[in-house]
Design brief:
The structure is a homodimer.
Chain A: E1 22-24, E2 35-36, E3 47-56, H1 58-67, H2 72-86, E4 98-107, E5 120-123, E6 132-134, E7 147-156, E8 162-164, H3 171-179, H4 182-190, E9 196-200, H5 205-216, E10 221-226, H6 229-237, E11 244-247, H7 253-262, E12 267-272, H8 280-285, E13 287-295, H9 302-311, E14 317-320, H10 328-338, H11 342-350
Parallel strand pairs in A: 9-10, 9-12, 10-11, 12-13, 13-14
Antiparallel strand pairs in A: 1-2, 3-4, 3-7, 4-5, 5-8, 6-7
Helix pairs in contact in A: 4-5, 4-10, 5-11
């Protein structure tokens, strides 16, 4: 901890959610705000981070690249303009942000995050709610990829989750793991020993971690669903991750459920990890009465899930995959370290060729 | 997929899920279909119902009313057009349907529903997957309410849930109760004795039933959120339904959470029963760590819930409200019969003036 006095440097009320940083419109949550105050002076429960890299959300970067026809100068200018105007990196078109890495610079005496100056960290909350200032005009960014080397500072609130970057894993790998770490954490909470777990999208990042988490939770059988033979081959290389591999289109409920049943289903717990729309019915239909479906795909439609279960008279519990579960980053990093083959599978997903999920 | 042991009246395969009724696109579940075959000739495991009333989903009716500025002729025309085109009543904008009542007309020899011709029933599966034909041009509907008197027929599949209408309650009341009966059933499953339950939209149909269910489950405190003083007065008349009444805009997370806390929150279980968008953050923020949010509003955004919880670092379990829980209709009807004042509150919601939901 720093030796700063237990006195606020700012003569105002402050909140663990960062409400005191909201400029416009007043009274909303930081994520919903148009503009945040990114003043480097911290409140007693805040942390200031020296930022070295932004990892833009894929949807946000794609929108910028398309809007400016791939022109690096214009893309860079647009990102700088957004951050300068809004005090945070939130693409006004997509509404999405991303995450950042940096070094802890100053820790308020009331911060509950347990951080220490000098630690290298990654934020696990979105850039859409993180006060941010860029000071190097993004001069080192070529505008051609989502990872943006930069200089500047960011503010963490009392309830902003951050993780210390592990020393034994490359930063891009650790970031990719942390980005999806909510999925394995919730999977491990829900799967009971002896049960059948079904992972839809089992060769992807969140899917492979969730399969490993299901095994660790004691699942008697893990069925992995993949869309193609190539993905199945990838999954087979990771011996033991999924005992049964099913090649199926998850958007086809009847086809999926039929194949899952042949592989030892229906499942007690189904985890949906594919970012394509229309997988709700198949997930529900592949789950046993009394079972649970966890939706981690951002392409999930709430009404399709709710009405789908009703329409199938399916007695299943359906969970919205919460990206935050206490201890989620440590759990996921531990799975990567200890599950044979998982790291190799994951690294192929992190490489430029393997960004499908 | 089924190899029928009996003889089908239709020279085609049939399935308990109604796959044989799907025209476009082929191979999807009936709910996902753009168009169903509503032919009155039934398969051996189907039931045909003579329909006398539709109960449109609140979100669907509101969308139609707003799209046509409340013009009854245009609303009626739009509903007729949807049913004629799609072979079912599924609002293309909201994706939602509703339910129906009618009289059992013909029961296939292989139907497992246990129905007998002449029984007055209500469907508990959505209109979004129920083959439907209207034959009276909705001439008796004034277009001013969700309940639509009509003539026509509908088809129930082997897995379509239906309930025989109770003899001791008026049909519009029983129908309105059954329409939302999944909410109190799931609420009763989730609320633990001694806990704090928060019902957002507590003076509405699903909200008032859920409040009663929370009480029955042994909640130590039930906090009811309503948007206006008028709604609060309505709720106060139903003595004991909500021990604390909070008037707040549920779309304002900070305002809602502050008021809920003052009323004895945060909640262990929060039930979202209001059909307006943007209530996810407030519900999450009003729920204690380790608590549960049940989303019953069809206006819920999956990504707003998932990203909202992550952005708030909220350790909450979020459930997609499943409209089907075994025994849900009987439970809800029992609550209406036995909870003092609930029936009176509910009847005001069913009356023409009280259609807010």
């Amino acid at each position: 901890m720093t030796s700063s006095p237990r006195k606020s440097r700012k003569p105002r009320n402050y909140s663990p959610l960062g409400l005191h940083r909201v400029i416009d419109p007043p009274g909303v949550l930081p994520q919903a705000a148009w503009q945040l105050d990114a003043d480097p002076a911290i409140a007693p429960d805040e942390v200031r981070v020296r930022v070295d890299r932004l990892n833009l959300d894929a949807a946000s970067y794609r929108q910028l690249r398309e809007a400016y026809a791939g022109d690096p100068d214009k893309i860079r200018g647009a990102v700088l303009e957004i951050i300068a105007t809004r005090g945070k990196m939130q693409n006004p078109v997509t509404g999405s942000g991303g995450m950042l890495t940096g070094t802890v610079e100053e820790v308020g005496p009331g911060s509950p995050l347990g951080l220490v100056p000098g630690q290298r960290i990654a934020t696990l909350v979105s850039l859409t709610l993180t006060p941010l200032v860029i000071t190097d005009s993004l001069a080192r960014w070529d505008g051609r990829r989502e990872q943006v080397p930069c200089e500047g500072h960011a503010i963490l609130f009392a309830r902003s989750i951050a993780a210390v970057l592990p020393g034994d894993l490359p930063v891009p790998l650790a970031l990719a793991v942390m980005d999806v770490c909510g999925a394995p954490a919730l999977t491990q909470c829900v799967v009971r020993p002896g049960s059948v777990a079904l992972i839809i999208g089992a060769a992807g990042k969140s899917g492979s971690l969730s399969a490993a988490a299901a095994r660790r939770a004691g699942a008697a059988k893990v069925i992995g669903v993949v869309p193609t033979e190539a993905e199945a081959a990838l999954l087979r290389e990771t011996a033991g991750l999924a005992g049964e591999i099913v090649i199926a289109d998850a958007r086809d409920p009847v086809g999926l459920a039929t194949r899952v049943e042949a592989a030892g289903g229906p499942a007690d717990v189904t985890v949906v990890c594919v970012d394509v729309a229309g997988c709700e019915g198949g997930a529900i239909l592949s789950t046993a009465p009394g079972g649970t479906v966890i939706f981690f795909s951002m392409a999930t439609s709430f009404s399709a899930a709710a009405l789908g279960a009703e329409g199938l008279a399916a007695d299943v519990t359906m969970l919205v995959g919460n990206g935050y579960v206490p201890g989620h980053a440590d759990l996921a990093l531990d799975l990567i370290r200890t599950t044979p083959g998982l790291r190799a599978l994951f690294e192929r997903r992190v490489s430029p060729e393997g960004d499908q999920s």
